Amino acid sequence: MAQMMRMAAETAEERARHRGATARRLVGEVAPYRSRLLIGFVFIVVGAVAQAIGPYLIGRAIDQAILRGDRPGLTRIMLLLLAVYAVGALASRMQVWQVGAIGQHVLASLRARLFDRFQRLPLGFYDRRPVGDLMSRVINDVDTLNQLLSQGLTQLVGALFSLVGILIAMLTLDLPLALVSFLIIPVMLLVTSSFARRARTAFRATRETVGDVTAELQEEITGVREAQAFNRTEENIARFRKRNAANRSANVQAVAITAAFSPTIDVLSTLATALVIGFGGYLVFHGRLTVGVLAAFLIYVQQFFRPILLASQVYTQLQAALAGGERIYAILDEEQESADPPGTPALGRVAGEIAFDHVTFAYNVGSPVLRDVSFQIAAGQTVALVGQTGAGKTTIANLIPRFYDVMNGAILVDGQDVRAVTRQSLRRQIAIVLQEPFLFSGTIAENIRYGNLDATRAQIEDAAQAVEAHGFIAALPDGYETVLGAGGGTLSQGQRQLLAFARAILAEPRILILDEATSNIDTRTEATIQRALGTLLAGRTSIVIAHRLSTIRNADLILVVEGGEIVERGTHDALLRENGRYADLSRRQFRDVAAVGIT
Question: What are the structural domains, with CATH classification, of the chain?
Fold first, then answer.
């Protein structure tokens, strides 16, 4: 039981690390491409054989042609050697092409699965994750795999097969000299193992710190207006430099570890060469070894350490890729928004009746945001939620489309528990307009059509006219085909809000949620929207969250939320007569407006 509790307490990222299965999972990514891998494997073997044959032919050229003065024989061997190296070069080219193509398929699959998971993760996941770090995983961490799969993997496998070919050739040529040459291998394995452990830790740190840098960069660029307004530029620069320095230090440490490996292998290569020359020369002096075989051995020894050096370089890529792979699989292992159970019915077209039945909800266990909330909204009613910031108004709105699920109680739409119908059918009935509307990169028409891809141009223009947005859109040089930058480009706050309203209306929802949707616009634009709302909300159930009490005077029902509870409910006039919290909010807001007018 204690072990199960510890496992449950682990985050997805910790599970990915502790499993130690990242390498096996990456190997599993290429399993669907077995046939292409087999072809690449054949080319790798051909290349390794060609590399192993080369020094042997050189040895024969020395012993059987050069020392004997056989010019025709030398020519034949050289032509054969040229053919062998040509075949090896072609095989090397083909193996890179085959494995590289497989790598690109794997990378495309990983990016697609990451994006798919991002789309399906619950909102609670994004509440605790910076966007920049998530972007770093899709871009930087996947790029580390690109470097490995596109070239490094082919080089590593090719180096291993070349190493095997060289070992077989050396053992075949002369067993005693080969065994003496191999005395250096145990030392090489110890050195490699030591560097491997240190490199793994170092490269994991580089992936984590580059994620921190990306997250900080994304946040500060997005908030540059606030930074300049509050004179925070110097502090932000200092904070970014600190994170950037941490990333630099992590990379310097990783480079220092890998840079020390190559000279160490060079020293071992020199020692092995010295052993071959010393013992091989002894054998030549005593007539037990030919000069040609000794020359071939010297070439083999140099080639023996070349794959080791290449493997060390690829190992650097491998460690970075494993660290990046851990971060990628940490996202893929995150629990996505729970799927609808098989056979869950779809919610048909609803009238829009909503009921909260003793609802309790908490983002974090033990800290409830809503406590035993109950109320009913008749179909077609406009209900306003008012209260201080943090009272729970937006949480109530977020529970209706099941962005989160209640802990206790139930939410009913037309008498049906929202958990008993498919999310897609439920959300198809709902449209939401936020305080800060998000507009996507694309044309104005594409943004309005976002919730109804089948809408015609006439329907798009009708929706814009309904919210009185058609005028400013038509005045733009390209009209509805005007391309917006991320977030709406140069459009004013009011214009962006009007487009968000048009988008919501075009989706033809039965339930409309307005979360502070008029708080950031000027009075004239608000008056425009208020005029449109009278027509647009007719026949729809509307939940309006507002700080400006003047915008919800005509609401059918006002719910005053405080501390996660409904403390007052009624119409505007009725709540004023009660002289309670709503009346106090109204008087304070009136005084604030009057004070602003005096100044």
Answer: 13-210+258-332 (1.20.1560.10), 349-429+511-599 (3.40.50.300), 438-508 (3.40.50.300)
